[in-house]
Structure formats: structure tokens, C-alpha cells
Amino acid sequence: MHLGSPWAELLLVLVAYLVGGIPFGWLFARAFKGVDLRRVGSGGTGATNCSRLWNGLNCAWVFLAVFALDFAKGLFGAWFNEASAAWAGARLGAGMDGISLQVACGLAAILGHMFTPYLSFRGGKGVATMFGVVTALAPISALWGLGFWGLLVGVTKYMSLGSMVAMISVPLTYWAEWGSDAFRSRLGVTLFLLVSALTVVWRHRENIRRLLAGRERRIGAPDQQL
Description:
This protein is mostly helical. The protein is built from eleven helices and no strands. The chain starts with 6 loop residues before the first helix and ends in a 13-residue tail after the last helix.
């Protein structure tokens, strides 16, 4: 099928948005607990809010399952890597190169998660889906981010703090990896990573207030801390 530009780009972005909008956390909560996730906890539809409906080891397994599915949405939305994005674009007659398609479709997948069309445009904070996009665009920086996330969450037990630090580390490590090229030939990716980090911080502004007030919920702590 050869659509040509801009219809090819629009189709790819739309598919990424619709896939990104699949609310796996909400589906888990509805299927296994009969709960509308938008009406409990933080109201988010992501892995953290969903996993709080379970106790003990089940909480961890549910978190990992939902996180992995939301992560996969971002990875798929950004076409896994530059080569596969370029192939898809060429098949449809897109005018954009592989990296540009990755950024555009990855952004669409993230927006789909945050503002899912299946739930009146209410979704989650987008960390897992965003991390999937980052992995497709900057795999080494994604590994650094994962390391920072694991360290912070392991030491502090604050999921929100780990998520924010992980995403902030991504554009910094990307800059360290690519040097001046990060602001020349790969400027689009760099800007995307910077905006993604700022978006995660903004989406966690209530968590920041609770962290500063000493009222943020730690992993495994009862909801009464909120």
C-alpha cells in the first residue's frame, strides 16, 4: 500500500496513538478486581495505581505485568528501531526519515497513554510507555535510566522519585554518549528526550508536593500515608 506523504505519516501516527491508548492497567483492575481505576488511588491508569489493588507478592507481579505491557506500547509505537521505522515509512510512501517517524509515532503513543480515547481521554502518567519509546530511540540511555530507577526505588522505596530521576537521567546520558552530535545531527531525539523528562516531572507535581511534605507513599506502605 502506497499512500504517499502526508497520509502515510498520519496513518502511522494514528496507529501509534490508538495502540498507546490501550489502558492495560484499567483492564487489569476491571477484569480481576471489578474496579474502575480512575476512581481509586491517584486516579491514574498505569502500573503503580493498578498494583495497589493487590497485596504482597501479587502487587509486584501486577506492577511488572502492567508496566511491561505499557512499555511495549511505547516500543511498538516508536517502531523498535530506526531501521524498522524507515522500512514502514518507505512501504507507505512517507516523506519523513526513520528517526523522525520514530519521534512522531513515539510521541503519539505517549499521548495515547496519557489521554486514552477509550476512557474519555483520561490515562496515566506515561512513564512506562515513555520508557519504551526511549528504549527504541536511545537504548544505552534507557539502560542508564533503568539503573537509576532501580537504585532510587531500592534505597528510598519511592516509585515516583525513581521514575523522575530515571527520566531526567536519559537526556543527560544521551548527551554524554553523543556529545555535540546530540545537538546537531540528532537534535530531534535530544529535544524529545528533554521534553519527555520535563513532562514526567510535570505529571508528578503532586508527588513532588507530597515528597516535600513527607507524605508520599512508599512501596508497601498503607494508603493512609496519603
